[in-house]
Please model this.
Amino acid sequence: MGYIERLTAKLPNLIISISEFIKEELKLLGVHEKKIKVVPNGVDYYRIEKVKRNNNSFDVIYVGRLISHKNVDILLRAISRLKKKISRY
Model:
């Protein structure tokens, strides 16, 4: 985690984490376990995994914040390149 995360992690009385992994990361930053509440992400990964594959088409799903280190711009450029390459065939 970055400097800002380390600095601000200790400020609030309660921190909401979306996973046990993030909770453990916060504890490594010195946040007391009692100040962390885990509220699972709203995406049902198990339900998504059960969807049958369609070999004729595909979808790309991105779930996350639109911040620079998530590199969504790279994902969008890659999709654009793939669409151009596939349309040639």
